[in-house]
Write a structure and sequence with these properties.
single chain, alpha/beta, Rossmann fold, OB fold (Dihydrolipoamide Acetyltransferase, E2P), five-stranded parallel beta sheet, elongated
């Protein structure tokens, strides 16, 4: 788990860092946690653009150049699941914080028990909801693609497109053979066509003509693959019933 703290006030940054360290010392080992502090939003954003991933962000709202809300919007372009906690001396931006999926909005001065409670819930949500993912190289760096959020993979030219449930599509220059070597190990994924891999969880309709996903994407099914795809889909549906999904 990785935590980023950003505050342009050095004293408050130090105070928050110490409180986070105190909280983590109660139940985490050093090899399982990493905490990074940033005195400016630009420095943190540079790390993110270079592919650095964080699970929890503790952000001051009123920061020069790029404020906390703007920084969170940039974070959300690359990371839909991280917990973003705003720490600020004013409630002025509380409504705006919801637009970027804020996990919590905590007013300063920071109260230890409240911060610990927020960290407890955030860490619990993350550790109890860990999901398999793959890391893909993109133009902006490295991006996580969570398998349970992945609807399908599509090859267009030399670019691979990862269509996600959130509506965000990640583009990578990897080869489909590299991707399928990982994805097809998971029984949720099938390859109905040489240019596609599909998550069975997101199939709305299957016919000899092709697959329609829950996001209304149409994916062709090759004649030779239809029987295998049909059997895989039926078996998947039976498993889903047995598991109560």
């Amino acid at each position: 788990m990785k935590i980023a703290i950003c505050d342009d006030n050095k004293q408050e940054l130090l105070q928050i860092s110490r409180l986070v360290d105190e909280y983590l010392s109660g139940g985490f080992t050093e090899d399982k946690i990493e905490v990074r502090s940033f005195e400016s939003s630009n420095k943190l954003l540079t790390q993110i653009e270079n592919g650095k991933h964080f699970d929890i962000f503790l952000l001051d709202v009123i920061i020069p150049n790029i404020n906390g809300i703007q920084l969170a919007a940039e974070i959300r372009k690359r990371n839909q699941v991280a917990k973003i906690v705003f720490l600020t001396s004013t409630s002025e931006f509380a409504v705006e914080s919801y637009a970027v999926g804020a996990f919590y909005y905590l007013l300063k001065p920071i109260q230890k028990d409240k911060l610990f409670s927020i960290l407890e819930k955030a860490c619990h949500d993350i550790t109890s909801g860990l999901q398999p993912y793959i890391v893909m190289k993109t133009q902006s760096g490295l991006s996580k693609v969570f398998l349970h959020e992945l609807i399908n993979v599509e090859v267009i030219g030399r670019t691979i497109h990862f269509h996600q449930k959130s509506g965000i599509t990640i583009e990578s220059t990897s080869t489909l053979s590299q991707v399928e070597a990982v994805l097809l190990i998971d029984k949720r994924f099938i390859k109905p066509h040489r240019s596609y891999i599909v998550n069975l969880d997101y199939i709305k309709n299957l016919s000899p003509k092709g697959i329609t996903t829950t996001s209304n994407l149409f994916i062709p099914v090759s004649r030779n693959a239809f029987k295998v795809v049909k059997e895989a889909y039926i078996n998947h549906c039976f498993r889903a019933v047995d598991e109560g999904r």
